[in-house]
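Our preliminary data section would be incomplete without showing what the modeling component actually yields. Below, a chain of 271 amino acids is followed by its predicted structure, encoded as tokens that our downstream tools consume directly.
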Amino acid sequence: MLYVALAGLGLLVGAYGTLIGAGGGFVLVPVLLLLYPELSPVTITCITLAVVFFNALSGSVAYARMGRIDYRSAMLFCWTMIPGSILGVWTTSHIPRELFTLIFGLLLLAICIYLLARPGGPKGKSSGEASGRMRRFVVERDGTIHTYSYSPRLAVVLSGVIGFVASMTGVGGGIFHVPVLTQLLSFPVHIATATSHFVLTIMCGTATLVHILNGSFEHGGVRRTIALSVGVVIGAQFGARLSSRIRGDWIIRGLAIALGLVAVRILWLAR
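Predicted structure:
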């Protein structure tokens, strides 16, 4: 019965995480901490990363069928997030954790308020050719055409920062990537959520493999991971289909709410 309940939880996490392109780890971590206070943070992190991987993989398959993933940009983001992640791991042990947690929680809260105020993103940005900008052209399976452009240099810097922050906080990169793609790099919302999900697949898959090789799955973590993963694989398909019926600005509002919840959790822990 417990594993059925975990599968149900995974279903909800998968649907919501795929809809907003954030993977759902920000929801799963606090829930697992409440359900299993006896588990070590390492075990909970392992479970979360593995579940987010299966969520992102399932969602990416659905988004790939829709033709929404910008693969060229996604690979650029992946390669630049890895060095940032490594630096984040090293930095964690060299700065006061409490101070960073407080600043980070306030930053997330500010981003939440900004996205709620401007869910449609910046206005008036050109999608045409411009000096130093990468022009992208994505056609969905239903014929919807997306034309946009962004600065590759800015994308590299921002992706490195996302990898750094995600590695330090353990929240995960997806919840940061979508606001960056939509607000700073001019990605259409539906392309941003799909591309972010594809990036999560590669990043979380790599991290999960490292944890497996290190033998970090302990105390029933594998069984709980399987139960949750069954749910998220199914839920991700629902989330991807639901995204086609929801306007981009409402997806951003959903992401803003998620950011706000994470901010409250972080600030609560920083007291």
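Residues 41-66 form the longest helix (26 residues). The chain has one domain: 2-269. Preliminary results of this kind motivate Aim 1 of the renewal.
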